[in-house]
TrEMBL record:
The lineage of its organism: Bacteria, Bacillati, Bacillota, Clostridia, Eubacteriales. The chain crosses the membrane at residues 33-55, 67-94, 115-135, 155-182, 189-209, 257-279, 324-344, 360-385, 406-429, 435-453, 483-503, 518-540. Keywords: Membrane, Transmembrane, Transmembrane helix. It comes from the Bacteria. This is ABC-2 type transport system permease protein. It comes from Candidatus Limadaptatus stercoripullorum.
Length: 580
């Protein structure tokens, strides 16, 4: 055991030696996490105000613990959301995997050191969310005349620190065997990436849709019997969180504390056993897959156009790296999921006779969420050239014009938006709460605005590329501009859908229903066309100039001499080459 702890402390100490927040130009930058926290502060204040109103109702219906469980589960969903893009890159596909595997270190100790680093990064998200929410909830319950155990206020930080353990443990328990099984396939890297995406999406969907029908017949001033029953059912499903909340609230504290220790300890033992069985092979085979065999199979070179070759090579290379592929798939995964969640928690749509104003509100929410995720959080557009890393200089040596290189990045970034929009459209039509014409128009608006935001993001990356990185977390930490498109998308989408809503409803009496819809969509399409045309023109009008401007940041066209140590996306031109 001493040897295991020694290995664990040694590697964890090395992993935690992170460089300061320095931009590629050498200037210190404001931490991106702090920028995001400050940006979401107004939303946190509004949620806390809402909790202060709901807390006395929860206490009066004797569902205080159940309500606390829902808050914990919501925070865990956000933890998993933010961890999704870094789990694979931190645990399985790392720059130092081959070197560490050659050292006399226990695989389980290596795994737990990496998992601890991941946990320490996510616990800050949990603390940011749960400290204000749980303290507000407990204080409001106390103020309403329902005394809360003093231990609750002491244990809130403990709950916040334990909350990330459950989603991370579940993700690890399911992903370790999946990565191990993927190692037996011929295209193990791509198979592993797809399998991990399915596993993580399934976990997130299960968390997010645990409480599927909170939008029944109730309002904020009362808790219906249906809602109380739903809260209790959700708490029973999330039993590890329930016993934690019961312990903090002083309800059968001794018994529930013992159950908590058993559950959380059991999860750690299971993770330890799985790491001991599967981790060494999972990491070794991933490293072998990245290195490639060094030979080119017969028939690998095919005649194709330059743009299609660039897109194909880019897609294949991304699929070899889960740390890049999973964030890139996020928008396609979560837009239809959040749309389904919205309709599951939304009481009724136009089919219930709410009228055009209600339809406009529903469509506005869908468009805002879709644009923020598809256009504002699309990794394929946020870091299209940065993700090439040290191999950008090698790629530049190909006889491809800057305009074609930019067009290939734009097509690939928009292609995943098309997939997301089609799936979301199927969700909208499946619920049937919007007329099919309105649903189709919403998706076209999301796609057009996302294309415009993709252009803005690509242009921003070309103006400020960063080719000196080791993993995706470095890119996120060193590039605070990555969060700008998300807020820009929210603001643009809000203006595009809500300004026409106000104008069209103002003339409802004179235009009638059909005329109101015609005016609304006419204004929305006009604004969308203007925004999209402006962003795309700004990108392609200067594509050659911007492409040439990246040369000085790419090592003056000198590729990395050691492809195994290259930080680039294309792996030193391995297996098939750029056009293969």
């Amino acid at each position: 055991m001493k040897g295991w702890l020694k290995d664990f402390r040694l590697l964890l100490g090395v992993l935690m030696k992170r460089p300061p927040n320095i931009r590629p130009d050498g200037k210190r930058q404001f931490p991106q996490g702090l920028i995001v926290a400050l940006s979401f502060l107004p939303i946190m204040v509004m949620v806390c105000v809402l909790l202060a109103r709901l807390a006395p109702l929860a206490a009066s219906h004797e569902v205080t613990a159940e309500f606390a469980v829902v808050l914990i589960a919501a925070a865990q969903s956000m933890v998993l959301f933010f961890a999704l893009g870094t789990i694979a890159g931190t645990l399985y596909v790392t720059e130092d995997a081959e070197f560490v595997s050659a050292l006399p270190l226990r695989p389980s100790a290596v795994f737990f050191a990496r998992l601890t680093k991941l946990y320490l990064g996510e616990v800050t998200v949990s603390l940011y969310l749960l400290l204000p929410l749980l303290y507000t909830f407990g204080g409001a319950v106390d103020a309403a005349g329902y005394p809360v155990s003093p231990a609750f206020y002491v244990l809130v930080p403990v709950i916040a620190c334990l909350a990330p353990v459950l989603p991370l443990a579940i993700a690890v328990i399911l992903s370790l065997p999946v990565v191990w099984l993927a190692s037996f396939f011929k295209r193990r890297a791509a198979v592993g990436t797809v399998a991990l995406a399915v596993v993580y999406f399934g976990i997130f969907a299960a968390y997010f849709l645990t409480i599927p029908n909170l939008g029944g017949a109730y309002d904020i001033d009362s808790l219906s019997a249906e809602l109380v029953m739903t809260l209790r059912s959700a708490a029973n499903i999330l039993y590890p969180d329930k016993v934690l909340a019961l312990t903090a609230l002083g309800i059968d504290a001794g018994k529930n504390f013992g159950i908590s220790v058993g559950i959380w300890g059991g999860m750690m033992v299971l993770v330890f056993l799985l790491a001991s069985l599967f981790y060494r092979r999972a990491v070794r085979t991933n490293s072998e897959s990245r290195a490639g065999k060094g030979t080119v199979p017969a028939g690998i070179f095919k005649a194709r156009g330059q743009i299609s070759a660039l897109i194909s090579a880019d897609a294949k290379s991304i699929m070899r790296y889960p740390s890049l592929a999973l964030p890139s798939l996020t928008s396609a995964m979560f837009t239809p999921l959040l749309t389904a969640f919205f309709f599951l928690t939304e009481s009724a749509g136009s089919s219930a006779g709410e009228g055009a104003s209600h339809d406009f509100l529903v469509m506005g929410v869908i468009v805002m969420v879709g644009v923020a995720l598809n256009g504002g959080s699309n990794y394929l557009a946020l870091i299209p050239f940065t993700r090439e890393g040290g191999q950008h200089a090698l790629i530049r040596s190909l006889p491809v014009s800057g305009k074609k290189a930019v067009l290939a990045k734009f097509i690939m970034a928009t292609a995943i938006n098309v997939v997301s929009v089609l799936v979301t459209l199927a969700v909208l039509l499946g619920f049937g709460k919007l007329h099919y014409a309105n649903a189709l128009m919403c998706m076209l608006i999301i796609l057009a605005l996302s294309a415009g935001l993709n252009s803005m993001s690509i242009r921003q990356d070309m103006k400020h590329p960063n080719f000196d990185w080791k993993d995706i977390s470095d890119v996120q930490r060193q590039n605070s501009r990555m969060i700008i498109p998300m807020f820009a998308g929210l603001a643009i989408a809000a203006a595009v859908v809500f300004v026409p809503m106000v104008l069209s409803t103002s003339f409802a009496s004179s235009l009638g229903t059909a005329g109101m819809y015609a005016l609304y969509w006419g204004l929305v399409v006009t604004l969308t066309a203007g925004v999209t045309a402006g962003f795309t023109r700004a990108l392609f009008a200067r594509s050659e100039e911007l492409y040439e401007g990246m040369r000085e940041r790419s090592g003056e066209g000198v590729p990395s001499p050691d492809p195994m140590r290259s930080k680039g996306l294309f792996g030193g031109g391995r297996k098939g080459g750029m056009l293969g």
